[in-house]
């Protein structure tokens, strides 16, 4: 399932914080999940994006740690015996106004409405998808959104989202936002073909149009990377499909 957020209030409980929020330099997320291995895999992935994540399997321990650490958000599974994710979301929201995400699996569909009504910020799929979690954490803390994105390295090409910086070997390459976003997308999918429609959806948030906007951006990126325009070896055209980025 995709992340689910309420479009209208569902009689949410009242938020009454009991402690002042802690100012910190990195986002802190507590992950409450009885499946420690799955939670730790997510925590490792988030750590690469400059997010501190603490894994806890016991709900009572998690509630105690929340009181001490005052995390920026909590991610809880829909079922953490003897409690439910909805009960945890309600407790955290009413006592500390802490944003809570509830993870629901294939058999937890009935938990979505309960979680949102209890004050959960959103419901996400379980098994976890890092991209979905990142999007929601970015919504919770938009001022640090770029810090959540990992530095990408593909061959000699390096892209740092937090510094808005691209390097090819030792050379610093300057490019405008849309080209930067397109290059970032291609590097995230290095070696894979992305169709033109996929690129339009992910970068421009719409299906492919008749304009040659994408062609122009690809041509400019190739020029900045020193890629041969007639026989490109980095940003490669795949006839009839789209583009693929190969390590330089």
Automatic annotation (TrEMBL):
What keywords would UniProt list here? DNA-binding, Phosphoprotein, Transcription, Transcription regulation, Two-component regulatory system
SUPFAM superfamilies documented for this protein? C-terminal effector domain of the bipartite response regulators, CheY-like
Which PROSITE patterns does the record cross-reference, listed alphabetically?
OMPR_PHOB, RESPONSE_REGULATORY
UniProt key word Transit peptide? no
Annotation: DNA-binding region: 149-247
Q: Which SMART domains match?
A: Trans_reg_C (SM00862)
Any idea where the Response regulatory domain is? 28-141
Instruction: Please list the coiled coil stretches.
Output: none
Kindly name one Pfam family recorded for this protein: Trans_reg_C
Chain ranges of the OmpR/PhoB-type domain: 149-247
Name this protein carries in UniProt:
Response regulator transcription factor
Q: What taxonomic ancestry is recorded? A: Bacteria, Bacillati, Actinomycetota, Actinomycetes, Micromonosporales
